[in-house]
Amino acid sequence: MSSSRYPAPGSAPTRDAADPRVVGLADSVIAQLHHAARCIRDGDAANAQSTLMRLIADTREHPEALRLFGLLQLRQRRASEAVATLRRALTQWPDDALLRSDLASALAASGDLDGALASWRKATELDPTAAMPWFNLGRQLQLRGDSMAAADALTRATALMPDFLPARVLLGDALVHLGRFDEATASYRAALAVMPSCGDAWRGLGNIKTRALDEADRARMRAVLDANDTADSDRIAIGFALGKAEEDAGHYAEALHALTIANTLQRRLAPWREAPLRDYVDQALAATVQLPKPPNPDFGREVMFIVGLPRSGSTLLEQMLSAHPEVEGASELPDLGEVLVAESNRRGQPWPHWIGKATAQDWLRLGRDYLKRTARWRQHKPRHTDKLPENWKFAGVLRAMLPGAHIIDMRRDPLETAWSCYKQQFYQLPHFACDFADLAAYLHHCERALDTWRGRDPAHIHVQQYEALVADPETELRRLLTALGLAFSPACLDYAQSTRSVRTASAAQVREPLRADTARAPLYGALLDPLRTELARHTRP
Asked: Which of 155, 292, 319, 333 could form an SS bridge with 495, CB 3.0 to 4.6 Å?
């Protein structure tokens, strides 16, 4: 039982207040609470804070005043303080769904994702009719890779709030990852029925790459792009979707035009620069020439990193490997980079400048941290893949941090890789894929780094050519599995039947039978000569 000084919402008559959360408070106090809420909404943090601190004192910590103060702290990126404040409110109203939901948001912001999930689940139990806890639960589950549970939660959210576009779009994404493409299409189109200019919905439809959009869809997208009131973010997403649709229709000049407009706008919003990457690679190569000898050379053999450029076939390879009885496909995990960033923060020195100062025990500690963070991916199988493409930037230290781990450098014809990247919208900005010259430069620096590190650790860094894999999958898989210390499994060739969640833009493609005719650049002929020129500039002798 709660020992609250104030009745919980819904536990007392509301004749003296329209808002059940402030029952029993004086009208002047209610007015101040509403004023504080408006200040939080409008970004007036100073006014909100002074008002709420006074109210908390005057009302002897009314839970609603504490809740608003917790939201203010969360808005100010004081997540740990927000958690403490909201827990104080919960001591009086332990069964308040809104408080549980707000606490979950604070826990997520503080890094306690397990606690956040538990709190959102509790909120949905306390009030199953509230849509936002279901949405937030689904969103967090999707981020954690549990697309099945995410789809269930998001289905509940959309049923309760049918016109809430973020839930419709995110549900579509989860269904795509599960291979339920008809349902995903329906969810995206439901979003478009509410808002025809919803770029994320068009993006989702375009990313179901095995389903072509028709002329009616192309006409609708052109109309939205021609409208003066379409937001830039929607213009970018729709431009990529239209480019894909025009290519599918065989309209290659029109496809290039749409994609160029979208990429130009995206690059204008966040320009990418080659110099920082070039300097980074130079520093990382120099810093990793000599590393401490690891105490256990087999430490970390549970992990197989798949790295390189996006759109190079890495999702296909992971789908094949994850069909192996000893391998779990974990998709794109942020953990390796986060471990190294945390160490940089602890040392007060940016990566990679502290590499030369790290001892063998330091690297062992960091390796253990990575394995602890990713342990859930080895609950059912002893080994897992981590296919975040940008992990190539850290490949040089893995022979000290996770010396038993293997790195698979996935490579595809440079023109096909670059063109496929140019056609794909990426959300991490600035991004190299918005410009032909940037693409060529990024590919060059990535390959020179991996080539150097492979020369230093040839037993653990392997090149897998995409074209060879699709031409003769069994031969290539046998070779690669042997290098990884795995026996050949025929299941790897039957990868399309897998029901695992695939959380990349290739989710639809890797559920189809293997095709060797995936090259698209030749269809454009001379239209792609500017890209060919940029790639040739970086070709090493």
From this structure: 319
* In a domain? residue 328: yes
Grouping H, G, I as helix, E, B as strand and the rest as coil, residue 140 is helix
- Paired sense of beta strands 303-308 and 461-465, if any: unpaired
Cβ atoms of 480 and 324 within 8 Å: the answer is: no
Contact present, 418 and 437 (Cβ < 8 Å): no
Is 223 a member of any domain?
no
H/E stretch holding 115: helix 113-126
CA distances 383 to 90, 276, 386, 395, Å, are 41, 34, 10, 18
d(CA 60, CA 91) in angstroms, rounded, equals 13
Which residues, other chains included, contact 252 with Cβ-Cβ below 8 Å and sequence gap of 6+? Answer: 246, 523, 524, 525, 527
At which of 127, 158, 187 does a domain end? 127
Cα(101)–Cα(96) distance, integer angstroms: 9
Could you give the CA distance from residue 110 to residue 225 in angstroms, rounded to a whole number? Answer: 39
Enumerate residues 6+ apart whose C-beta is below 8 A from 1.
none
Q: Output the CA–CA distances (angstroms, integers) from residue 27 to 22, 23, 33, 450, in the order listed.
A: 9, 10, 10, 67
Cis peptide upstream of residue 128 (ω within 30 degrees of 0): no
| Boundary of a domain, candidates 92, 127, 162 | 127
Helix segments in 423-465, DSSP class H? 436-456
Average pLDDT for runs of 10 along the chain of length 541: 62 57 87 93 93 92 94 94 96 94 95 94 95 96 90 97 95 92 95 95 88 92 95 95 95 97 95 96 97 96 97 93 95 94 96 96 98 95 96 97 98 96 91 96 97 97 96 96 96 75 52 70 96 89 52
DSSP tag of 311: T
Q: How many angstroms separate the CA atoms of 205 and 203, rounded? A: 6
Structural domain count, the chain = 2
- Domain containing residue 64: 1-127
The 10 Å Cβ neighbour count of residue 66 is 24
